[in-house]
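Q: Given only this backbone (50 positions), what sequence would you predict?
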């Protein structure tokens, strides 16, 4: 059985990776001038930062 600590570590790693991915996507969208996408990705990032 997987321990609670292992599950929590996996959750945190997944969350961290999602945020890093969103940050990269935000930068690319900004560079392309895709303002609506930037706003959507920033909102998603805020959700994960809660």
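A: Predicted residues:
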């Amino acid at each position: 059985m997987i321990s609670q600590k292992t599950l929590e570590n996996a959750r945190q790693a997944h969350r961290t990776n999602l945020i890093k991915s969103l940050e990269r996507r935000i930068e690319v969208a900004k560079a392309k001038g895709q303002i609506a996408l930037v706003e959507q990705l920033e909102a998603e990032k805020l959700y994960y930062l809660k």
